[in-house]
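4.2 Preliminary Data

To establish feasibility before requesting continued support, the project team ran the inverse folding procedure on a target of 456 residues. The structure was first converted into the token representation described in Section 3, and no sequence information of any kind was made available to the design step. The complete token record follows.
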């Protein structure tokens, strides 16, 4: 029997601890992907870094698995575990901005909505995700692809330092000058090395942007995808945008007769001078008729949260992804075949551009291992009805099988499914062996293995 009991854990942490039978336990164990249903021994809703360190020591003293939950968007459900300890950072959501230094420090449970709300009043931002409810920590640790990546680099490229609780309960600072090997690994290596309880970012002058979604008929999808392939190669780096297969939701700017119809959408984000936004998008408008659009000046946080309603908590999730060097005619043909079969309004396929500033970082400068790729493709199956699981998982797998032969072997770790563990080495690319070496230093027993796992 361990001499570190659950009652002692409750006494030693400032945050709440939930165990089976407690009021609030069922809510505390719930995660974003409703396909995942686990019953942890304890959920520790940490109030501070000390609580996290105590929870790690409790789990290790009792030989329990540890799951770490930040924003809770993990598609494979890595933020929970049966009969283990969930360290839930959801109460740690503070963001502090230093406008003079153009930096911001976010706690480990902050979302990009929290982050943008804090930085926007100063006219500052850094690369975040596409959905504002995504966790800052999880996105960044896997790399961090978003609207601003072509101009500012990935989220991890803008990371200045991080506070980390390691497997032995130590609290370390990781940065260029302190624990530099750990800092390198955190920038793309996922949650393999410890619990990140705060992250400091470099900020850049970004406030209002010009952009939004445009919908094109499926008959014009080939022309739009071919245009995108050529345009994005040397488009101004202030432009971030991506094509997507999307069923039209019932929104006022879309003709009512076309609600529920699949389209090839294009979501744009121009972060340069506002008066240049319309001219930048003119080439896209000239490719094919626009059926519907909601494009214009808007606050950057408004675009970052524009699609939140399509992906509320409680959906079923199954995703697949690949990196792509070039949108070849063969891969475009696969998209034209499978994209229009998108099954429900929540599901989608996106092709994110990751050239520009992302390519100017050396492949071994951070753990993000695919600087040679120009695009990151995700086939995101998301739907409300569990009775449709087999059919919708089938759509994702068939789509992936058609595109994979024309793509890189590896994909973006933040988009991987639970059954992608066999792709781990390919996903981390040429940095995998160095990541294993860092893992052996900071987590030799593989305590943090509920992730796209790097075995020591």
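Position-by-position output of the design step:
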């Amino acid at each position: 029997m361990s001499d570190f009991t659950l009652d002692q854990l409750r006494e030693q942490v400032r945050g709440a601890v939930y165990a089976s039978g407690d009021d609030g336990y069922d809510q505390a164990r719930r995660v974003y992907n409703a396909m995942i249903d686990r019953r942890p021994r304890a959920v520790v809703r940490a109030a501070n870094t000390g609580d996290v360190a105590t929870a790690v020591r409790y789990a290790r003293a009792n030989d329990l698995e540890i799951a770490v939950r930040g924003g809770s968007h993990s598609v494979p459900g890595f933020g929970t575990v049966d009969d283990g300890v969930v360290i839930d950072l959801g109460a740690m959501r503070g963001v502090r901005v230093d406008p003079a230094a153009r930096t911001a420090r976010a706690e480990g449970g902050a979302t990009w909505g929290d982050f943008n709300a804090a930085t926007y009043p100063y006219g500052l931002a850094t690369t975040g995700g596409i959905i504002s409810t995504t966790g800052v920590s999880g996105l960044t640790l896997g790399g961090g692809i978003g609207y601003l990546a072509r101009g500012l680099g990935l989220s991890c490229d803008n990371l200045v330092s991080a506070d980390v609780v390691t497997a032995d309960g130590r609290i370390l600072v990781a940065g260029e000058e302190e624990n530099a090997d750990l800092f390198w690994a955190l920038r793309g290596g996922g949650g393999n090395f410890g619990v990140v309880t705060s992250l400091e970012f470099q900020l850049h002058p970004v406030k209002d942007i010009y952009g939004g979604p445009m919908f094109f008929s499926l008959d014009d999808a080939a022309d739009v995808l071919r245009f995108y392939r050529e345009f994005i190669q040397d488009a101004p780096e202030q432009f971030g945008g991506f094509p997507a297969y999307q069923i039209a939701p019932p929104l006022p700017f879309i003709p009512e007769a076309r609600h529920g119809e699949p389209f090839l959408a294009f979501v744009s984000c121009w972060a340069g001078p506002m008066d240049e936004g319309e001219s930048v998008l003119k080439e896209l408008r000239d490719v094919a008729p626009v059926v519907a659009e909601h494009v214009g000046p808007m606050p950057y946080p408004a675009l970052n949260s524009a699609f939140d309603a399509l992906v509320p908590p409680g959906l079923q999730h199954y995703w697949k992804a690949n990196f792509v060097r070039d949108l070849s005619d063969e891969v475009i043909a696969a998209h034209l075949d499978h994209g229009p079969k998108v099954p429900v309004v929540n599901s989608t396929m996106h092709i994110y551009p990751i050239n520009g500033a992302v390519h100017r970082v050396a492949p071994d400068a951070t753990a993000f291992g695919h600087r040679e790729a120009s695009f990151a493709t995700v086939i995101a199956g998301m739907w409300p009805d569990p009775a449709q699981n087999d059919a919708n998982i089938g759509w994702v797998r068939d789509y992936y099988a058609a595109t994979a032969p024309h793509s890189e072997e590896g994909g973006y770790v933040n988009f991987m499914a639970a059954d992608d563990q066999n792709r781990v080495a390919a996903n981390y690319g040429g940095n995998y062996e160095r990541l294993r070496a860092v893992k052996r230093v900071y987590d030799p027993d593989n305590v943090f293995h509920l992730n796209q796992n790097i075995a020591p």
